[in-house]
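Weekly modeling sync, notes
Attendees: S.R. (lead), two postdocs, one rotation student

Agenda item 3: backlog of single-chain predictions. S.R. asked that every request posted to the team notebook include the full sequence so nobody has to chase files. The rotation student volunteered to paste the first one in as an example of the format we agreed on. Action items at the bottom.

Example entry:
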Amino acid sequence: MRAVQITAFGGPEVVTVREVPDPEPGPGQILIDVDRCGVNFADTLLRENAYLAGATLPLIPGIEVVGRTRDGRRVAALIEHGGYAERAAISRDGAFPVPGDLDDTAALALLAQGLTAWWLINRTTSVQPGESVVVHAAAGGVGSLAVQLAKISGAGRVIATASTPAKRDLALSLGADAAVDPGAGDLTKALIEANEGRPVDAVLEMIGGPVTGRSIAALAPFGRLAFYGMAGQVEPDPVSPRALQRTSATVSGFWLANALQRPQVLRAAYTEMAALVARGRLRVIHGGDHPMSEVRRAHEAMSARRTTGKLVLDPRT
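Predicted structure, as returned to the notebook:
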C-alpha cells in the first residue's frame, strides 16, 4: 500500500510517500480502508522527535483516520500512528461510527481536535454558565471548535486570540465576543480589557513562552488555565505556587492520550459533537484537502502556522 514513512527525523523534507506492507491487525484490532487522514500540529513535532511520546523509526505518522471496514461500516478512529496510509489497523472498541451526514473532514476534526476542545471545556476547566473563557490560537483546529463549544456550554464571554486580522475575524464569525492579538505589548491588560475590565475565569493555552504567564496573570479568583500544547516551542516561565495561592488559581495540563483510557466518555462526546454539526450548531472549518503526494506542503503550512481549521490528506492520490 501507499503510505507516508519517516526514516529520519527532521523538517518537512523527511516525509516521503513509499510502498510499504499492509498493517497486520493485532488482538482486538480491525483493518480499514482509509478515505482521509487528519494532519495535526503534533505530527510536525513527532516528525522532529519533539513530541511528548517518544518515536521509533521507521514510522508512519498520523493519529486520525476515517474510512470503511471490510464489511462496509463507516468509522473514524484515533490511533497511535499509521494514519498517513491507504489502510490502517484500528481498535475495534475504539472505532466511532460516523453518521452519513458528516463529511470526512468533519469526521476527522471531531477526533483529536474536537475531543480535546470538548474535554478542555467540559472537564479540565469545567466552564460554568456565565463564565468568561480565553481561547488562544482560536483559528486553529482545536481553537475554532473550542470557541463554539464554550458558547454552547453557556460561557458568558469568549475572548479569542489569533496572530492575524483574518484569523481574528474568523474567530469572531464563530461566536467569539472579542478577538485579541497575542503579540500585544501587554497581553494581560489586553485580555482583561477584552473581558470588559474584569479578570477572566478560564484560559485554554497552547502557545507557551510568555503567553502562558501573562494569561495566568489575567485570571480571576478561582480562575483556571489549561495547558495543552506548546506551538511556539518555547517553555513558559516557571509558575509560582504563591502567586497561584493569592487568587486561588489552578493551572493544569491536558493530553488527549490520557483520555483514551475513558473510551465511553470519548464516544459520548464524539456523538454529541456530531449531532451538533448535523444541526448546524457546530461549524467545522475545512482547512485544506491535500493529496497524500503533497504531504510536505501540508507540513510546511502547519509548521509555519499558516493554517486554519482542519487539514486532511487523501491517501488514494
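Discussion: group reviewed the output briefly. The first strand starts at residue 2 and ends at 5.
Action items: rotation student to repeat for the remaining queue; S.R. to check formatting next week.
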